Amino acid sequence: MEIVYIILLAIIQGITEWLPISSSAHLALTQQILAVQPPILFDIFLHVGTIAAVMVFMRNEILDMFRALVKADMGDENFRLAALVIAASIPTAVVGFAFRDFFESMFLDSRAIGTALVITGIFLLICEIKKGHMTVSIPSALLIGLAQGIAVAPGISRSGATIGAALLLGVRRESAAKFSFLLSIPAIFGATIFEAKDASFVGMDNGMIFVAPLVSAIVGYFTIGFFLRYVKEKGMRPFAYYCLLFGALAFIFLT
């Protein structure tokens, strides 16, 4: 695959993984438009970059949670946050693995992806109605994790589903976004490990192995910072309109 396509796909991954507009939909549709079909391992390396981005950006929160878990200090707020991330990851894994084959069948269906994007847009608009003031609890964490599991489907945004679910449950915007990004780490890491066991280096080149994760990591890092500031001040409505428009165009013109 040409290096310009590798860089383009890495930029798309770095941006759309963190904005509520579905990275899987953008990657799938872009690959269809460019008429390229990179190896599974290429997608894995793209996700390695996005994992690196969120771990560097949220390194302080991650270290605080790790220290609290090691100390087993249940009264520590960071221990509570780590427990919430663990609890939310359980329904994500169950739904993701149970419906994996069905979700994967959607990747080559532009009509299904377009429909899912429209659903994401409608969901984001609904979520904007709710004004939250709460923090994440165990019951809400389980529901947010369930939403993340459903977001394995291309077109259903992972960040949009998790942040939107949190907003509907009354969680503050900023808290919802930060929890979504922390929750992405075990989800992306687990999916990467699961996919890697069947992956092969056949068809891979240095651009896919080194350039792709580096570009997606750099772009992803700055996208996370931008989105946290933006969603706190202005909300999700512009991303909802984007999903509605992009989904309709994909349904009409890429079918």
From TrEMBL:
GO molecular function: undecaprenyl-diphosphatase activity
Transmembrane segments: 40-58, 79-99, 111-129, 176-196, 208-227, 239-254
Entry's localization field: Cell membrane
GO CC, alphabetical: plasma membrane
Superkingdom of origin: Archaea
InterPro entries found in the cross-reference section: UppP
The keyword Membrane appears for this protein: yes
Keyword terms: Cell membrane, Hydrolase, Membrane, Transmembrane, Transmembrane helix
Membrane-topology descriptor: Multi-pass membrane protein
Main localization (coarse): membrane
Catalysed reactions, as listed in the record: di-trans,octa-cis-undecaprenyl diphosphate + H2O = di-trans,octa-cis-undecaprenyl phosphate + phosphate + H(+)
EC class (word): hydrolase
EC number: 3.6.1.27
Function per UniProt: Catalyzes the dephosphorylation of undecaprenyl diphosphate (UPP).
Assigned protein family: Belongs to the UppP family.
Name recorded for this polypeptide: Undecaprenyl-diphosphatase
Gene: uppP
